[in-house]
């Protein structure tokens, strides 16, 4: 490409990590270049808006400072947008001298159809559109060094030797989505999903079960498609779906573009990390390939890892990749000897350039680890309490010792999780459940890292970079160092200790500050704002009252049956306990209906007399002090306090004076005697949620500003409606949900 005011570049992937850097370098170092970026809309944000937003990102900071007040104007003059998706690209009518295709999905384990749609379908769409336009631009296709699949030894800068039919694989991958979806809809699969959802969400109500079952079905489909991609790639000799689809994307470029007689250069970076020099040392846009592994180690989550200490971890700073791409864009296509190929040359061979470090400046995995160990020993990450985290020392054990140890821990964790779930909810068991959750989460992360990364930390491949070094050597004399890409100039200790790891640590701290700020914004206020359109809704048993419907019944019958009949009633209640427990686990309403049958034949007047006397006094003594204080706070703030319970109205009369309104069940009576049936369905789980919506609508109350207090998993259905949901001494399922959703967990002890 000869730089003139009419030089035009088409760039894909401009909003990505590498694409941003390429765009910035073209603008900052080559005044005669105009860039049109292919950008798809995202939600309500147009492609043009997304491109303009790039100017505010850190990648453009240096250029903005150089341009000053003219930055926005110059950016608008020198960039344009071709809006749309690569897989369905609109007709290309604008003439281009160079096309840089850097768009891709950089994920090791996406669902197979997503990986193919971007990495293969995007290439198909781009090259079909270019061919239809009748143009002959020099195309620079960005791939990865790892396209060669599972192999050992030196990997040349040459086409990958395989005979996979990319078109057949592409069609099969897109069909896989429909096939997996259909497999998820068989009666057997759906019933299994319903059973699991009922076990986990039955107490929340049928709608919650249905939502959970459908979410699980969608997750099953996604997991199936991830497994499909990983297994298909490995069956053909690749480590994962990412490298497999990148290899097929290269073959699309070779056959469709180079095969039609056009100029094609394929740039294969290794593992791209933060910039060494430009736009400034340490520039990075989010975590890249190696960074989650590094930060997990820094947080003490990786006590050991299955890597070969002598394996070469091929890392390359992003500005080296950018400079190689720009050198090809400016210098044009070159033949194997490095001679530029003019436009229109007869059937030029594609050029392959591996921008990597393993051959010319190797970084053994143990050396990288030693740098990371030294840095985080001197500059430890802090835990949530502000204490420094001590990083572990790896021994690199042989013979899959890490895998065996991880498998044992996973089995023990699964057993521990089941045992904890079976225990009654107490402060101690909630602590155990929280510890078990953290352990399982940590093991899950470790499993993910082991499965995804060990192919890269155990590799015995070395990537040749002779042609890339030749390209660097051809740069004009006097080229500034920050525009070169000679990897032999990298001091790895300097890079890790003073460039990449400090940048990574600062980015992690910035994420932490954002999360902390979000927690502060969402933290419950210590003082309540005064309002008359706000509800404070309280559950009764286990929340306001340290009692249950069983305890209330026992106290009532002990006082009314007399010594002769009471023992038999107690024995019958104990024998029925397993039935009640099973009902309670399945459905709160089912339990209440079953238990209330015990009131059959009890005179309503007997209950009223007891509630007005000793039973009422006992209930008031069981009120939780924390509940009384919170109720008073809400009433002082002008909030409408509402007690909602599945218990019967007669039993809650002693507490009615505490609330503005009490909503309870009612027993059916005949001639003043209870029949054992409820007069209306119990107001629990989803029924309570629907009632609450209607109540707020009729009374003009704002649920998004209202407060809810519950203790049981059955309360989750209505707590989610409240702007301020609180869990009070929750059972274990509600406790886990509260931790997941960051709901406050209150401990209202009795005295």
How many discrete structural domains? 2
Q: Can you identify the CATH superfamily of the largest domain?
A: NAD(P)-binding Rossmann-like Domain
Specify Rg, calculated over alpha carbons: 33 Å
What profile does the largest beta sheet have? 7 strands, parallel
Beta-strand segment tally: 19
What class, by secondary structure content?
A: alpha/beta
Percent helix range: 40-55%
Placed side by side, the strands forming the largest sheet appear as: 3-2-1-4-5-7-10
Q: Could you tell me the mean pLDDT? A: 90
Low-pLDDT residue intervals, each spanning 5 or more residues: none
Overall geometric form: elongated
CATH architecture of the largest domain: 3-Layer(aba) Sandwich
The CATH topology assignment of the largest domain is Rossmann fold
- Strand fraction equals 5-15%
Number of contiguous helices: 26
End-to-end span in angstroms? 83 Å
The CATH class of the largest domain: Alpha Beta
Written overview of the protein:
The chain is an alpha/beta fold and 751 residues long. The chain has two domains: 7-164 and 236-517, Rossmann fold (3-Layer(aba) Sandwich), CATH 3.40.50.720; 535-746, Rossmann fold, CATH 3.40.50.1000. The chain is built from 26 helices and 19 strands. Helix 5 packs across helix 6, helix 6 packs antiparallel against helix 8 and helix 12 (365-378) packs across helix 16. The mean pLDDT is 90. Pfam families: HAD (PF12710), NAD_binding_4 (PF07993). Residues 11-325 form the Thioester reductase (TE) domain. Belongs to the fatty acyl-CoA reductase family. InterPro entries: FAR (IPR026055), FAR_C (IPR033640), FAR_NAD-bd (IPR013120), HAD-like_sf (IPR036412), HAD_hydro_SerB1 (IPR006385), HAD_sf (IPR023214), NAD(P)-bd_dom_sf (IPR036291).
């Amino acid at each position: 490409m000869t730089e003139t005011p009419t030089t035009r570049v088409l760039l894909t992937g401009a909003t990505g990590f590498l694409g941003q850097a390429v765009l910035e370098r073209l603008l900052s170092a080559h005044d005669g270049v105009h860039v049109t970026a292919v950008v798809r809309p995202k939600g309500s944000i147009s492609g043009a808006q997304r491109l303009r937003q790039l100017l505010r990102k850190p990648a453009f900071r240096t250029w903005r400072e150089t341009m000053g007040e003219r930055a926005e104007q110059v950016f608008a003059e020198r960039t344009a947008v071709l809006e749309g998706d690569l897989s369905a690209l609109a007709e290309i009518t604008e003439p281009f001298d160079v096309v840089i295709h850097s768009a891709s999905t950089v994920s090791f384990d996406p669902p197979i159809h997503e990986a193919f749609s971007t990495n293969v379908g995007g290439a198909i769409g781009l090259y079909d559109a270019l061919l239809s336009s009748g143009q002959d631009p020099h195309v620079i296709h960005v791939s990865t060094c790892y396209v060669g699949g599972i192999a050992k030894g030196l990997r040349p800068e040459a086409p990958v030797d395989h005979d996979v039919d990319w078109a057949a694989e592409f069609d099969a991958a897109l069909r896989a989505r429909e096939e997996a979806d259909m497999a998820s809809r068989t009666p057997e699969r759906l019933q299994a999903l319903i059973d699991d959802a009922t076990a986990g969400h039955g107490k929340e109500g049928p709608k919650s079960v249905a939502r959970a079952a459908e979410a699980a079905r969608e997750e099953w489909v996604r997991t199936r498609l991830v497994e499909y991609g990983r297994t298909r790639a490995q069956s053909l000799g690749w480590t994962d779906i990412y490298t497999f689809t990148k290899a097929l994307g290269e073959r699309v470029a070779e056959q469709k573009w180079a095969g039609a007689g056009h100029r094609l250069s394929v740039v294969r970076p290794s593992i791209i990390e933060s910039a060494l020099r430009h736009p400034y040392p340490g520039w990075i846009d989010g975590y890249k390939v190696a960074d989650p592994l590094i930060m997990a180690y820094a947080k003490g989550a990786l006590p050991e890892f299955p890597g070969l200490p002598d394996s070469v971890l091929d890392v390359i700073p992003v500005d080296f990749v950018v400079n190689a791409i720009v050198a090809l864009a400016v210098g044009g296509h070159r033949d194997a000897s490095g001679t530029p190929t003019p436009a229109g040359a007869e059937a030029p061979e594609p050029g392959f350039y591996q921008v990597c470090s393993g051959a010319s400046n190797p970084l053994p995995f143990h050396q990288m680890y030693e740098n990371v160990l030294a840095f985080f020993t001197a500059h430890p990450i802090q835990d949530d309490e502000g204490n420094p985290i001590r990083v572990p020392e790896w021994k690199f054990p042989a013979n899959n010792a890490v895998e065996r140890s991880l498998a044992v821990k996973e089995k023990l964790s699964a057993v521990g999780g089941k045992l904890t779930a079976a225990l009654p909810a107490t402060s101690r068991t909630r602590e155990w459940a929280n510890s078990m959750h953290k352990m399982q989460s940590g093991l899950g992360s470790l499993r993910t890292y082991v499965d995804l990364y060990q192919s890269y930390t155990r590799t015995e491949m070395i990537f040749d970079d002779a042609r890339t070094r030749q390209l660097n050597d051809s740069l004009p004399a006097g080229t500034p160092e920050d525009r070169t890409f000679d990897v032999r100039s990298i001091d790895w200790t300097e890079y890790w200790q003073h460039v990449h790891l400090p940048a990574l640590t600062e980015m992690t701290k910035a994420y932490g500050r954002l999360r902390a700020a979000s927690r502060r914004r969402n933290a419950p206020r210590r003082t309540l704002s005064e309002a008359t359109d706000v509800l404070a809704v309280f559950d009764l048993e286990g929340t306001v009252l340290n009692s249950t419907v069983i305890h209330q019944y026992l106290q009532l019958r002990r006082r009314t049956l007399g010594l002769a009949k009471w023992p038999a009633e107690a024995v019958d209640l104990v024998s029925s306990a397993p039935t009640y427990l099973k009902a309670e686990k399945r459905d709160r309403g089912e339990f209440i209906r079953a238990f209330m049958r015990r009131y059959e034949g009890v005179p309503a007047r007997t209950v009223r007399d007891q509630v007005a006397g000793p039973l009422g006094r006992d209930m008031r003594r069981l009120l939780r002090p924390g509940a009384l204080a919170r109720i008073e706070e809400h009433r002082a703030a002008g909030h409408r306090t509402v007690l909602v319970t599945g218990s019967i109205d007669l039993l809650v009369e002693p507490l009615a004076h505490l609330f503005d309104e009490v909503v309870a069940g009612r027993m059916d009576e005949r001639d003043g005697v209870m029949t054992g049936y409820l007069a209306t369905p119990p107001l629990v789980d989803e029924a309570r949620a629907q009632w609450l919506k209607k109540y707020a609508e009729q009374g003009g109350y704002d649920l998004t500003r209202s407060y809810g207090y519950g203790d049981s998993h059955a309360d989750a259905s209505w707590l989610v409606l409240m702007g301020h949901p609180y869990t009070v001494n929750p059972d274990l399922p509600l406790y886990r949900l509260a931790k997941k959703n960051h709901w406050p967990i209150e401990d209202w002890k009795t005295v």
